[in-house]
Amino acid sequence: MTDNANLVINTTDTSRPRLTLASGGGLDITGGKVTINGPLNFLLKGTGFLNVSNAGSELYADDLYESNSGMRHDQGYFNVSNGGKIHVKGTSRLTYTQGNVSGEGSQVNAGTFFMGVYGGYGGNQFLSVNNGGEVNAREHISLGYYDQRSDTTLVVSDGGKISAPKISLSTNSELALGAQEGSAAKAAGIIDAEKIEFVWAKTSDKKITLNHTDKKTRLFPRILSVAARAWAISMRSMARLT
């Protein structure tokens, strides 16, 4: 969509229709607004993509929800950049391989922001929030599914910001400040949360990674474990943990 166009999609609670973006197709909002009234299964399948870029480009939705239909979802792409915005009243839960929220004014705002693929239904999921981009959840940011076989990674770097009262990490999930474990350190972003919880996990592979170049960065949230097994904090920076 371009040139300040407006598109409205109306759905009902009982039907929950599916919008499938597949095989190189996608929803490309570069100058206009899309409004989705009601719940919608929004499926990025194969090489399908969702792109919201440039100031004035916005997507409004009650929910952006992927219902795990049993099909494998392993190549989708999600991008919000250059001042684009997504506003979700309820839950944002999209399945994609690579995601990017980048640039001043670029925002994803939701009630709950969820990352992860249930069981064996998809490949790894990676999201970078960087260069002033923001992911803001009024209630909760959740990484990973119980017993998922793929990896979920959220990296906050170069002045990017995520904010929520609570952030939870489950099976095979990583929350990284600067860069993910094993990558070259980058400038830190901002993680604004009251608490970080480690939950619902059958394995110990859930972690916070501090891998950045900033000397005075601090991590303030309370870190809690309500899972039966261990969790880890990996530090490869000059950060102080308080």
Tags for this entry?
242 residues; eleven-stranded parallel β-sheet; nine-stranded parallel β-sheet; globular; disordered C terminus
3D architecture notes:
By secondary structure, this protein is mostly beta strands. It has one domain. It is 0% helix and 54% strand. It has no helices and 22 strands. The strands form three sheets. Strands 1, 2, 4, 6, 8, 9, 11, 13, 15, 17 and 20 form an eleven-stranded parallel beta sheet that branches. Strands 3-5-7-10-12-14-16-18-21 form a nine-stranded parallel beta sheet, with no helix packed on it. A two-stranded parallel sheet has the order 19-22. The relative contact order is 0.11.
- Give the rounded overall mean pLDDT: 79
Q: Judging from the principal axes of the Cα atoms, what is the shape?
A: globular
What's the alpha carbon Rg, rounded to whole Å?
A: 17 Å
Number of structural units classed as domains: 1
Structural class: mainly beta
- Unreliable stretches covering 5 or more consecutive residues: 226-242
Major beta-sheet overview: 11 strands, parallel
Beta strand %: over 45%
Instruction: Report, as a whole number of angstroms, the end-to-end distance.
Output: 46 Å
Number of strands: 22
List SSEs in N-to-C order.
EEEEEEEEEEEEEEEEEEEEEE
What fraction, in percent, of the residue positions are helical?
Answer: under 10%
Itemize the secondary structure elements and their pairings.
Layout: E1 5-10, E2 18-22, E3 26-29, E4 32-45, E5 49-53, E6 58-65, E7 77-81, E8 85-88, E9 91-93, E10 98-102, E11 107-115, E12 125-130, E13 134-143, E14 152-157, E15 161-169, E16 173-177, E17 190-198, E18 206-210, E19 218-219, E20 222-225, E21 232-235, E22 240-241
Parallel strand pairs: 1-4, 2-4, 3-5, 4-6, 5-7, 6-8, 6-9, 7-10, 8-11, 9-11, 10-12, 11-13, 12-14, 13-15, 14-16, 15-17, 16-18, 17-20, 18-21, 19-22
